[in-house]
Design a protein that fits this description.
The chain is an alpha/beta fold. It has one domain. Helix content is 30%, strand content 14%. The strands form two sheets. Strands 1-6-5-2 form a four-stranded parallel beta sheet. A two-stranded antiparallel ribbon has the order 3-4. α1 packs across α3 and α5 packs parallel to α6. The protein is globular, with a radius of gyration of 18 Å. The chain starts with 26 loop residues before the first helix and ends with a strand.
Length: 249
């Protein structure tokens, strides 16, 4: 009989590649382990976008949080953690450098781990999809890789994560990037509009409450424009967001 005390201890994020649970870990194991090193959102943060606030109830500086619900085509965006060390470096390496699919598995576990830990906040979600990346993106289609891993890691089928073999939403072409620092709001919005225009819906979403998953949240421009397509054009009832990391202001 194996006792808990006899099991190897996780090595801690971001030492995942050498961890004894890299292949056999679960969303609960990896989420708990990562929570000990990645930086959580501030105790006082915006309920809509997760941005740090000076005091409880203070107004959020994020432009989009000042819009009315009718103007903003998403209800809120939650984040697993802040876009800071050590998570920031790993996400950047995964997206822009080596495209190591092993990180896709870890990130998929973190997404499912967050869902399991916050089940009371998303009980009415009908469909969970990723915000698509371009088909020829290099070194990897990072969002698709993460969502495929999340689908597999949700082994009991607890969450309505879209089957990766039947994509709900795809991106048909590459578009201008706006993730770099110092980009103006107007430029981010134009890039977000171009991104949304490049999307094609393959599965009906009319009347559904959708959780849209992405890697990083900065201003919410992309969630707004993609949400607009899903709600105004495709008939979705609601769009919420979940990201791995929220860029601190």
């Amino acid at each position: 009989m194996t006792h808990t005390a006899d099991l190897p201890k996780p090595l801690g994020f971001p030492n995942c590649s050498r961890c004894p649970y890299v292949l056999t870990g679960t969303p609960e194991v990896c989420a708990l382990c990562a929570s000990k090193t990645i930086r959580p959102l501030a105790e006082q943060h915006c309920a809509l976008c997760g941005q740090n606030l000076r005091t409880a109830g203070a107004a959020c500086w994020n432009i989009i949080c000042g819009w009315t619900p009718e103007q903003r085509f998403f209800t809120r965006v939650d984040a697993v953690a802040l876009f800071a060390h050590p998570l920031e470096a790993v996400i950047k390496r995964f997206k822009y450098d080596d495209g190591n699919a092993g990180w896709g598995t870890i990130f998929g576990r973190l997404i499912v781990g967050w869902l399991n830990a916050h089940a009371d906040e998303v009980p009415d979600i009908d469909l969970i999809i990723g915000n698509p990346s371009a088909p020829d993106r290099t070194p990897i289609q990072h969002i698709e890789t993460i969502m495929s891993a999340a689908y597999k890691e949700d082994s009991l089928g607890r969450w309505p994560i879209a089957d990766p073999s039947t994509p709900v939403l795809i991106k048909t072409r590459e578009t201008k990037k706006s993730a770099s620092g110092g980009v103006r709001w107007t430029e981010k919005m134009e890039a977000a509009k171009d991104h949304a225009a490049a999307l094609k819906l393959h599965v009906p979403v009319q009347g559904k409450r959708i959780l849209l998953v992405d890697d990083v949240f900065t201003t919410g421009a992309t969630f707004h424009t993609v949400g607009k397509r899903l709600m105004q054009e495709a008939g979705a009832l609601e769009v919420r967001g979940l990201v791995l990391a929220r860029v601190p202001g």
